[in-house]
Amino acid sequence: ERMPTVQDKACSDGKYTGEVDDKGLRDGNGVTEYSWGGRYEGHYKKDKKDGKGVERGRASTYDGEWKADQKDGTGTNAWKNGRRYEGAWKADEISGEGRWRWADGRSFHGLFKADCPVKGTLVDEDGVVYAVTYSGKVDIGNEALKPATRTKLASPAQEDFAKAAQLWVKGIEAAASLAPLAEKVAELEAVAKKKEIEEKKHAEVLGGLDAKLSEAAKADEIASKVFHGLDEQAKKAEKESSDKVSKAEKTAQEVVDKANKESSDAIAKAEKAAADIIAKANKEKDAAIAAAKKQADGVIKEAEAEKAESTSKVRKASADARSKADAANKTCQAKKKAAAEAKAAADKVRKEHDKADKELKDANKALGDQKKAHDAAKKMLEDAESELKGISSKKNRPSVALTASRCQSPSGPRGDSDAEAPPPIRRPPSFDAGWR
Q: How many Å is the maximal CA-CA distance in the chain?
């Protein structure tokens, strides 16, 4: 059974063109263009590389057998730096019988295990053959790798082997020189295969279109037959309809004539009855108009009288309101003037009060200064009196008494009975309060 194919299907590692299974997984032959630039062309099984396939990477190309996405079986890996391996692989490692070529022309033919040479034959760059062994984990890719043991072989059979090995190396070199051409051929084959797939798709599409066109032609033929039968039925129906229309037109004309006669009689009767009704209505209308006019004249007179009375009342009320408004305006102006005068008087009183406060403060200050001077004079008199008493006691003179009235004058230590006392200070009404 042929597997379905897909074109440029997105997958986990790039884009795939080829066969798929019923779940859409890669299964069968196909090509994957890796997102990192590599390419695989070969067989898949359950979305994994399995069977024969060629994978081109950045540094090398592998052509051989695969199993579950790993190199497994027989295959050849050629590196771009000149190294090459042909032989057995196991689980993505060189393992089993194979032959290795270094870039300098030397080659090893023998047994490998886990990517390491074990034992075999080494042909150096001069064509000399050695039986060699290697020990432990060694890197076969190392150009300076030395065997653990080496024994030179010189038998005719070994010489033939060396020639065969050299021919194999030359064949590899020739193949390497043809590698760019091989890659170009592979690309052309891939393009041709892709084109073949596209042509197959186009052929399938064209086949489907041909089938649809055939079905459409059959449907058109059936429709033509149906339309022919419908045309015959339409012609028959048209004739029957024409006969029925003629009969209906005749019957309708008879009905119309009868209706026209009955309509004419009814119109005449209706016109007569309408004329009587119009005459009666005109008479009743004239009477109603006269009564309405009379009633309207009375209503107009009453309305004019009420209007005149209302106008007089409104004018009187307006004049009274205007008089009251004028009086209120005058009162308001007078109140505004009085308020302005009261404000001016208050400002004047405030200024006088501020002036009086200032004078009071000055008077309090002067009184304080005078009190200090009075206290000083009193002390001087007391000191003088004390001195006089001392002098009197020494000279046995009667003591000089100083009256309290003389103490009011700071005229000197001896005093003068004829001296005038200082005039009393006249205090303003608020002096006591300020003094306190």
A: 190
Q: Residue 269 phi/psi, 5° resolution?
A: -65, -40
Token pair in block for residue 282: 């005109």
DSSP state, residue 60: E
**Three-state DSSP class for residue 69:** coil
Name every residue whose Cβ is closer than 8 Å to that of residue 358 and which is 6 or more positions away in sequence. none
Question: Are 399 and 386 spatial neighbours (Cβ–Cβ below 8 Å)?
Answer: no
How confident is residue 41, by pLDDT bands cut at 50, 70 and 90?
very high
pLDDT in tens, 275-309: 887 788 688 878 877 887 888 688 778 868 887 88
pLDDT, tens digit, 9 for 90 and up, residues 375-399: 998 899 888 888 888 887 776 555 4
Cβ 32 vs Cβ 12: under 8 Å: no
- Amino acid code (one letter) for 226: V
Which residue in the block uniquely carries the two structure tokens 């009193």? Answer: 378
Between CA 436 and CA 432 the distance in angstroms is: 6
**What confidence score (pLDDT) does residue 199 get?**
73
pLDDT score, position 392: 76
For residues 234-259, b (16+ Cβ closer than 10 Å) or e, as one string? eeeeeeeeeeeeeeeeeeeeeeeeee
DSSP state letter for 145? -
Q: Exposed (0-12), middle (13-18) or buried (19+): which is 67, by Cβ within 10 Å?
A: middle
Q: Tokens for 377, please give them.
A: 């004079």
Distances (CA, A) of 415 to 4, 216, 233, 377, 424: 152, 161, 170, 11, 19
Compute φ and ψ for 164, nearest 5 degrees. -60, -40
Residue with tokens 């994978």: 55
CB atoms near residue 41 (< 10 Å): 21
Q: Which residue has the higher pLDDT, 350 or 108?
A: 108
The burial of 18, by beta-carbon neighbours within 10 Å (0-12 exposed, 13-18 middle, 19 or more buried), is given as buried
For the chain, what percent of residues have pLDDT higher than 70? 73
DSSP 422: P
Query: To which residue do tokens 């107009």 refer?
Result: 300
pTM of the full structure = 0.42
pLDDT higher than threshold 80 for residue 89: yes
Between 428 and 146, residue with greater pLDDT: 146
Query: In what helix (H) or strand (E) does residue 121 lie, and over which residues does it extend?
Result: strand 116-123
What is the secondary structure of 199-222 as a DSSP string? HHHHHHHHHHHHHHHHHHHHHHHH
Q: How far is CA 40 from CA 19, 35, 58, 321, 390, in A?
A: 14, 12, 12, 114, 147
Confidence of residue 188 (pLDDT cuts 50, 70, 90): confident
CA–chain centroid gap for 222, Å, is 60
